[in-house]
Amino acid sequence: MKRLQNRIAESRFALPVTAVYTLAVWLVMCAVNCRTHAELVVFAVSAYLMAELNNRNALIRTYSRMVSCSFLALGTMTAPMAGSLYVLAVQLCFISAFLLLFASYQDKRAQGRMFYAFMFIGTASIIYPQSLFFAPVLWVLIGTNLMAFSGRNFWASAIGLTVPYWFVCGYCAMIGDFGIIARQLNMEFWTPCNYGDYTATDMAVTFGFILLVTAIGTIHFLRNSYKDKIRTRMIYEMLITLALFTTALAVAQPMHGAQLTGILAIYASVLIGHFIAMTNTRLTNITFIVLAILALTATAFNILNSTPTTNNLSLWSL
């Protein structure tokens, strides 16, 4: 029996309709000076790469565009509160890295892909230094899940990770101040966590909603992972591990939640997309409807409570 969620998940009109909705909401945000057209362009590129990530890796074993639709919906919902150009650029870098890493499955001679994948992680760390924390986790997952760890791949990834800093060092040499990198890393990495300053309830609700859909998608996949191919299971388990690490990092340093919300939305889109496309019970259909209504409500609420765009990198003020 096909329920509403299945008809939507399998429909060829799902992605075009979601894209039109997304564009309309973003244009409204641009009109009220909540977001800029440059941010819309970056988000559009990220959405395209998410579609490529789904298509190239067959993340859903039946025809469905729910990964792309989920990313558009979640990205639009979080945009008013955590959609600055900095956040979107970090998100784009991570999606690009995953696209290259997943293509390296069981390839111990994928030096080129590893180099460019970690170059994107290094680029993200220029904007958001905590991105470097993901590098050791990715190295472990490359060995355990992608089964592509080798000496050549490791050194290619290590060089790629440092490449963006070569250009930063050139800029520092040009202005005669090599302390810029050290000052930023010292300030960003070791900022003490003070929950007493945490007052942005709207941002907490947004992060909480994405965490909720991540949990729903994770539980569903772990219960039904035996139905997917080994390669697909390895990719999903990798994303689940990264989601847990991202959540732990958000708990440890909530002042960087805007960036972490953007990163977590990547995993949430894949996991909840699989849940929507591959379930068909009465309970899951109700869950889908409730989540859709909550996402639309949260989007409207965030737009009404949004502030003019800012380049502030601190977490909950975006």
In words, what does this structure look like?
By secondary structure, the chain is an all-alpha fold. It is built from 13 helices and no strands. α1 packs across α12. The radius of gyration is 19 Å and the shape is globular. The chain starts with a helix and ends in a 14-residue tail after the last helix. The C terminus is likely disordered.
Short note summarizing the structure:
By secondary structure, this protein is mainly α. 75% of the residues lie in helices and 0% in strands. The longest helix is centred in the middle third of the chain and has 25 residues, at 151-175.
Distance between the termini: 44 Å
- Helix-strand makeup class: mainly alpha
Q: Indicate the percent of residues in helices.
A: over 70%
Radius of gyration: 19 Å
Query: pLDDT below 50 for ≥5 consecutive residues: which ranges?
Result: 311-318
The major beta sheet can be summarized as: none
Annotation field: number of helices: 13
| Principal-axes shape call | globular
Let me know the number of strands. Answer: 0
- In percent, how much strand structure appears in the residues? under 5%
The H/E string reads HHHHHHHHHHHHH
Average pLDDT over all residues: 88
